Amino acid sequence: MILQQLSEAYGPSGDEGPVRELIAEEVRPHVEVLKVDSMGNLIAAKGLASSRPPVMVCAHMDEVALMVSWIEENGLLRFKKVGGIDDRILLSRAVKVGRKGVHGVIGAKPIHLQRPAERKSVVQSTDMFIDIGATDRSEAEKVVEPGDYALFDTRFEVTGDGMLKGKALDDRVGCAILCEVLKGDYSFPLYAVFTVQEELGLRGATVAAYSISPALGLVLEGTTCADIPGTEEPRWATRLGGGPALSVMDRASIANKDMLRRLREVAEREKIPYQFRRTTASGNDAGPVSLTREGVPTATVSVPCRYIHSAASMASRSDFENTVNLVSAFLADLSQRGY
C-alpha cells in the first residue's frame, strides 16, 4: 500500500527528497512528464496533447518535524519546531534524527524534581531536549549536527474496523490519492503537483501554480477531525467515516462555489458519501493557488484525520477510498462536460 510507504517515509518541510523519490517511482509509468522545480515540487503531467487549459491538482509532501538547534555538552539535543506542533504531545515521544534515523526520545525535567508551580503548567518545547544516548557533545556530533530534522518514530498500521494509523497522514493521504488519480486518462492537460513546505507557509504551491497557470485548482488534504469526547458536535470539523470533506472557507481561501456545486453533484450522482468541513481554522495550498496571476477557481477535498500534527493520526480507509472515487469522478466529469 503506497500510503504505508509514504506515511513511514522521511519528509520534513524543506527536506522532502525521500518522499519525492517514492512518489516519482509510483507515478512514472502513468505520466508523460515528470520534473522537479527549483523549490523541490514534484510535477507530473499527462494529457499534454490537448489544447484545453490545464487543471492543477496538488497535495503536499512535507510533514511537521523538529530541527536540532544546539548540542549540549552532555550530548542532549535542543530543538526548534518545524510547523505547528502542540508542546503537550512531545514529551516521551520516540523520534528518529536525520536521514540516518538515529533513535532518540524527547525528555524534560522529571515531575519528581519540578516545583509545585511548574507542575501546573505545560512544559514548553524550549525546556525539552532529545536524548540519543550520547555521553557528551563529541559523541553526539559523530551522528547528528545542528540542522538535522527529527521525525516521530511511528509505524503505519491498519487497525480496528478499517482504520489507518500513522504519522504524517497530513498530507501523505493526499499524496497517495493523487498517485491513484494519475492512473486515469483525461481529455485535458492534468498537472499533478506534489508540493513542498506547505507547513511553513504554503510555499511550494505558490511557485508551482505561478509556473503552471492553471484554469482550475484542486487541493487534496488530510484535515482536522475532532469527533471525540469533550468536543461539541458543531466543532468536530469532520467526522471519521463520513466521507471526503469539502471545504467552504478557511483562513487562506474561500472555495469556488461552482466547483463546490459540481463536486456535490458528482458525489450524489455516483452515490459517494461526502461531508462539509465545519470549521474555518488554518489554511492549505488552496490559498496561494487561488491567488495565482489573475486568480484561479480552486476547491479543497480532504480526508478526515484525527490527531493531525502529532506522532500518530487516525483515518478511515473508507474515507480514503471514497476520496479517490470522488476526485477521479470529478476529473472524469471535467473531461466529458468541460469546465
List keywords for this structure.
single chain; 339 residues; alpha+beta; Aminopeptidase; Elongation Factor Tu (Ef-tu), domain 3; 2 domains; eleven-stranded mixed sheet; six-stranded antiparallel sheet; 25% helix
Task: Report what the structure shows.
It is a single chain. The chain is an alpha+beta fold. The protein has two domains: 233 residues, Aminopeptidase; 86 residues, Peptidase M42, domain 2 (Elongation Factor Tu (Ef-tu), domain 3). It has eight helices and 17 strands. The strands form two sheets. Strands 1, 2, 3, 10, 11, 12, 13, 14, 15, 16 and 17 form an eleven-stranded mixed beta sheet that branches. Strand 4 and strand 5 form a beta hairpin. Helix 1 runs antiparallel to helix 4, helix 4 packs across helix 8 and helix 6 packs across helix 8. The radius of gyration is 21 Å and the shape is globular. It starts with a helix and ends with a helix.
Q: What structural class do you assign from the helix and strand content?
A: alpha+beta
CATH domain class of the largest domain: Alpha Beta
Examine the secondary-structure arrangement and name the CATH architecture of the largest domain: 3-Layer(aba) Sandwich
Q: Whole-number radius of gyration?
A: 21 Å
Q: Give the number of DSSP strands.
A: 17
Determine the mean pLDDT: 95
Work out the oligomeric state of the chains in this entry: single chain
CATH superfamily of the largest domain: Zn peptidases
* Helix fraction by DSSP (H/I, runs of at least 4): 10-25%
- Return the string of H and E elements: HHEEEEEEEEHEEEHEHEEHEHEEH
What portion of residues belong to β-strands? Answer: 25-35%
Low-confidence parts? none
Kindly give the count of domains. Answer: 2
